[in-house]
Design a protein that fits this description.
Structural class: alpha+beta
Strand order of the largest sheet: 1-2-3-5-4
Radius of gyration: 15 Å
CATH topology of the domain at 28-107 and 136-155: Heat Shock Protein 90
Order of helices and strands: HEHHEEHEEH
CATH class of the domain at 28-107 and 136-155: Alpha Beta
Strand content: 15-25%
Shape: globular
Number of strands: 5
Number of helices: 5
CATH architecture of the domain at 28-107 and 136-155: 2-Layer Sandwich
């Protein structure tokens, strides 16, 4: 497994080490990140590295876009408690990307005008997950999760 320090510094290899082999049963990945724009790239690398370790390169682009949108939304809340990014395999058919932040404000999908330069993030998450995303309120914030089908990556 790639050390978190390699992921955060950007030096993580974005493909499995051929000498180690792919371990589809390897554990989840979690990182606590600062509320900063730089955390978006760190989150993308964390998710991509884990998906490649699991042998799921077909999910990297969609999962990277999803985690980018969710972390960007979390950073915009202005909270300074803790921002947590995780990627899990709740089953062999699902990859779940999670982003937790310290804001109790729930994300809302909005209708954007054709010329709008922002506001499409959750609509993209909704489309990429085929509507399989949601929010869990927590005592001091929330966790947004987005599920991707492993079968879709293998087509």
């Amino acid at each position: 497994m790639t050390p978190l320090s390699d992921v955060t510094s950007g030096t993580a290899a974005l493909r499995p080490d051929p000498g180690v082999g792919i371990r589809p049963d390897s554990g989840p990945a979690t990182a606590c990140l600062p509320y900063s724009a730089e955390s978006v790239g760190v989150a993308r690398r964390l998710v991509a590295t884990k998906l490649l370790e699991w042998g799921l390169p077909g999910l990297v682009d969609d999962a990277s876009l999803i985690v980018s949108e969710l972390v960007t939304n979390a950073v915009k809340t202005g909270c300074q408690t803790r921002l947590v990014v995780a990627v899990r395999r709740p089953s062999d058919r699902i990859v779940r990307v999670l982003v937790g932040d310290g804001s109790r404000m729930m994300p809302v999908m909005i209708q954007t005008r054709p010329g709008a330069t922002s506001g499409r993030g959750l609509a993209m998450v909704h489309k990429l997950t085929r509507g399989r995303w949601g929010v869990t309120p927590r005592p001091f914030g929330k966790v947004v999760h987005a599920d991707l089908s492993v079968a879709a990556a293998r087509r």
